[in-house]
Design goal:
With 429 residues, the chain is of the alpha+beta class. It contains 10 helices and 16 strands. The protein has 2 domains: 10-204, Beta-Lactamase (2-Layer Sandwich); 219-427, PPM-type phosphatase domain (Phosphatase 2c, domain 1), CATH 3.60.40.
Length: 429
């Protein structure tokens, strides 16, 4: 059977070195221009915007450096299988060279490229790990994810495209991106699995730096904020539109997403009547209480009942007083939503370009592609329902939240936010 280790075989060579050389020249020219702009930017460590811009410049330069290296690898072609792995990637590189592997299901044999040994920190003289042994190199929390990806590839012929963390023999933890596919025999049966892997630890670290510096930027009064997705679980894609300072007309607001069990997710939004005794919102404490009650096995209805009793206890969560709450538990196994609310609007369900308010039942079967909107402002429902055709065209929960922020932030685009908090959750296929 011909090998599918494309990272190590010249079967995917470009049509000519001239085109790759041109790309390399363009990349290096762009890299120089970006570096010149970065050097000319004002440097002020006390300025949050300046720190955010520098983080973005650094990330762009790192990525251009890595693009330069990958194009050079494309131009030079792969080394022979017997050749040593070559020099280590430069310090600070966001992406290592690509490693590859093929696992033969008939013989249980494994074939690794030298780069994969380096990525996983293993001795090149050691035998490559079989598919059964591979999870032993993966962080315990990520082993179910790897198992699901491999099973989907071997049983359902689904391509692999995901990330997990590996633990090297020296104890270092690295994030690895794996892409793979089944290799079929002449009868259409899966004979082996082929994959390429790369170390993306530095890339993820640089991206976090950009997000963290962005999150520290001062917010202008009345600005609309669309949060990044709160969750990208297999069952739901979630994002939120919130006020700039986390407060609505009545008081502090919260929205929260928590995986409470395998395939079950808790979503909640709500508001308090006032800040806590020291002047700070107690929304984090309240959201944590909701999570704790949900993890203890309480369904949304009993959960809110218990929360109301806690609020009446002296010195409990009742200072400040809960103005309203909406809690939903989504079960991915049967795509069922169970919900309860107290002095807060019911969830909105959008399907096929139309929307409706859920009720009077507190259990609703959902379908792939359904969009849920949880919100805290009762007067907002009709405005959200009117957006149904446009929400149906959104490609992601992030786009939904951005649309809500633009269209429902108040009659005056420059005025204060009056839409409360809106949490968008889309059911994945």
């Amino acid at each position: 059977m011909p090998s599918h280790l494309s990272a190590d075989h010249p079967c995917a060579q470009p049509s000519g070195h001239g085109s790759v050389e041109a790309l390399i020249s363009q990349t290096r020219r762009l890299k120089g221009e970006v570096d010149a702009v970065r050097r000319g930017a004002r440097r002020d460590d006390a300025d949050a915007r300046g720190r955010w811009q520098r983080a973005l410049y650094d990330l762009a330069l790192h990525q251009l450096d890595d693009l330069d290296q990958h194009l050079a690898q494309l131009r030079d072609g792969p080394p022979p299988r017997s050749a040593p792995a070559g020099p280590a990637p430069r310090a600070g590189s966001l992406l290592s060279r690509v490693g590859s592997a093929e696992w033969n299901l008939l013989t249980d044999a494994a074939d690794w490229s030298p780069e994969l040994y380096r990525i996983l920190g293993r001795d090149p003289a050691a035998a490559p790990l079989t598919l059964d042994e591979l999870p032993s190199a993966v962080l315990a929390e990520d082993r179910p994810k790897l198992t699901a990806m491999v099973t989907g590839c071997l049983v359902d012929a689904r391509p692999i495209d995901g990330e997990f963390r590996v633990v090297r023999p020296d104890g270092a933890v690295r994030t690895v991106h794996m892409m793979g596919e089944p290799v079929l025999d002449a009868h259409g049966s899966t004979a082996s699995m082929w994959a390429v892997l790369r170390d993306v630890s530095e890339l993820r670290r640089s991206q976090r730096a950009v997000h963290e510096t962005r999150d520290r930027l001062p917010r202008a009064a009345g600005a609309r904020e669309t949060s990044p997705p709160l969750s990208r679980a297999a069952a739901l894609e979630v994002a939120a539109a919130v006020p700039p300072e986390g407060a609505g007309p009545a008081g502090p607001l919260w929205c929260d997403v928590c995986e409470i069990a395998d395939g079950e997710t808790l979503l909640s939004v709500g508001s308090l009547t006032a800040p806590g005794p020291d002047g700070t919102p107690d929304t984090a404490l309240l959201a944590g209480t909701l999570r704790g009650l949900a993890l203890a096995g309480l369904a949304p209805g009993p959960l809110l009942d218990r929360l109301a009793r806690l609020a009446r206890l002296p010195g409990g969560v009742g200072r400040p007083v809960l103005a309203g709450a909406l809690c939903c538990a989504y079960r991915a196994a049967d795509r069922t939503l169970v919900w309860a609310h107290t002095a807060s609007p019911a969830p909105l369900l959008f399907r096929g370009g139309t929307g409706r308010v859920l009720g009077p039942r507190t259990e609703e079967p959902l379908e792939a592609g359904d969009l849920l909107l949880l919100h805290t402002h009762a007067a907002l429902a009709h405005r959200l329902l009117a957006l149904a055709p446009r929400l149906a065209e959104a490609d992601s929960a992030r786009e939904v939240a951005a649309l809500v922020a633009r269209e429902c932030g108040g009659p005056d685009p420059a005025g204060p936010w009056d839409a409360g908090c809106v949490l968008a959750a889309r059911v994945r296929a």
